[in-house]
């Protein structure tokens, strides 16, 4: 298995070769999907870099494992499954939102990333590598953004859920537009489908989160927890 240094070295070499190709660069700057794909990949590499500096202890690893297990269970408790795909769950985003609040954004995003991989293995729907990126690791990574809003739980949760919606929305426009009814724009189709699924799921999570004592949970796990990030 490659270590992180080897991964970064290979990535740097690939980017150097890519930068020397004016044709590819021209395609990138004229293709919005290429641009957001590069941004998504950069976000993952930044997370990998930051994760190297996180101080993992037994308690933290156990809590990440517990969050992943709870998320898997809640994700399987489907209240309604849409015919177009996707389903409304019983607050499946709550555990990842909470670990972001409690431990900060990088641990929250790392946990979301891991769940995205687990979800891809358990319930795969793969059309394209870029579609996989925007339907599995990236949207659940976004849920860890709550760590940037530890004192404003509702705002933080809304932004994190909306960021997840944007990932699925991009995937819907780029890769599921052909499923749109005749005469309907792929943008409108993706907005309606993903807005319905993520919107309903998000409202349930926001209602549950409103009644949870987030500040008390933060103090319980240690409000001054430090991941030793640069």
UniProtKB/TrEMBL annotation:
Keywords: Membrane, Transmembrane, Transmembrane helix
Cellular component, GO, one term: plasma membrane
Keyword Transmembrane: yes
A Pfam family annotated for this UniProt entry: Thia_YuaJ
Keyword set includes Transmembrane: yes
GO molecular function: thiamine transmembrane transporter activity
Protein name stated in the entry: Thiamine transporter
Organism of provenance: Clostridium fallax
Lineage, opening ranks: Bacteria, Bacillati, Bacillota, Clostridia, Eubacteriales
